[in-house]
Design brief:
5 strands, 88 residues, two-stranded antiparallel sheet
């Protein structure tokens, strides 16, 4: 498990996330939020390793509320399982 930074709109939908130079989710394992990024509007959340492929492909459908990042709702379970198992 690592931490990531996300931005959300007023409804809690993920609108952006901090990316590494190669465009993938930038992971942090220090468990200490960067105040400068927080001041820029990012939210510091945890994401388990298994979720990274799904988050990268479907981040526009993730939501953040109650202090947690939530998977997309109303998606065909087969699509999600395919992504988690290394498919497209």
């Amino acid at each position: 498990m690592a931490m990531i930074y996300i931005k959300t709109n007023n409804l809690g939908a993920v609108t952006d996330y901090l990316k590494s130079d190669d465009g993938v989710v930038k992971q942090f394992d220090d468990f200490k939020p960067n105040d400068e990024l927080i001041d820029e509007g990012y939210i510091y959340v945890h994401l388990i390793d298994l979720e990274y492929p799904l988050f990268e492909k479907l981040h526009d459908y993730y939501t953040y509320f109650d202090g947690q990042l939530h998977r997309p709702y109303n998606f065909d379970r087969k699509i999600i399982e395919n992504i988690l198992n290394g498919g497209n």
